[in-house]
Write a structure and sequence with these properties.
CATH topology: Complement Module, domain 1
Shape: elongated
Structural class: alpha+beta
Largest sheet: 3 strands, antiparallel
Strand content: 35-45%
Order of helices and strands: EEEH
Strand order of the largest sheet: 1-2-3
Helix content: 10-25%
CATH class: Mainly Beta
Number of strands: 3
CATH architecture: Ribbon
Length: 81
């Protein structure tokens, strides 16, 4: 996708890497490219890594809770009316 200024573009691509030992990892990557006078002046890659540290733990626990509730048929909201 090119920006209106004609100097910036974003590209998303599906990536597959084969690691030593044969394991394949697949993920999407987004690249933002900035140009000036026809030359690339900046290329930034963004990968879909999640949060780290305490935020990752909290998010993981929330997802686990949601998964357990969906498997048992329970709602995360109390049934008061």
């Amino acid at each position: 996708m090119a920006a209106e200024d004609g100097q910036t573009a974003a590209v998303e691509t599906a990536t597959a890497h084969v690691l030593p030992g044969g394991k394949t990892i697949r993920f999407t990557q987004t690249f933002v490219i900035e140009t000036r006078a026809g030359q690339v002046v900046r290329l930034q890659a963004y990968t879909p890594y999640g949060p780290h540290g305490l935020a990752a733990i909290v998010l993981g626990l929330m997802r686990l809770g949601n998964e357990i509730r969906s498997r048992t048929g329970r709602s995360s909201k109390s049934a008061t009316s």
